[in-house]
Amino acid sequence: MFDQTTTNTEVHQLTVGKIETANGTIKPQLLRDAVKRAVTNFFSQLDGQEASEVYEMVLSEVEAPLLDIIMQHTRGNQTRAANMLGINRGTLRKKLKKYGMN
């Protein structure tokens, strides 16, 4: 799994598009491709119907599992989780409440 500390190097590598780990390189492009496939699949299933609130739907579908995994990784430490996500703790608490994770 992941080490419990995040170094400046890891944060920098993430912002430039990759993280080097002992097992190789993690590339966010894989996540982007998965989201693209899922959204494309969603639109292909509409069968001519109009879509609405797609932006919020996609954010919710990505954000909820992200928050769940981050909270598990930090063992519920909201300060560490907020730091990892790059948001303040108040924003994190609001998001956790939104998804019933408080």
UniProtKB/TrEMBL annotation:
Species of origin: Shewanella intestini
Keyword Ion transport in record: no
Family: Belongs to the transcriptional regulatory Fis family.
Gene behind this protein: fis
Superkingdom to which the source organism belongs: Bacteria
Record's subunit section: Homodimer.
HAMAP family, A to Z: DNA_binding_Fis
DNA-binding region (UniProt annotation): 78-97
Assigned keywords, A-Z: Activator, DNA-binding, Transcription, Transcription regulation
SUPFAM superfamilies membership: Homeodomain-like
Protein name: DNA-binding protein Fis
Role according to the record: Activates ribosomal RNA transcription. Plays a direct role in upstream activation of rRNA promoters.
Domain DNA binding HTH: 59-99
GO MF terms held by the record: DNA binding
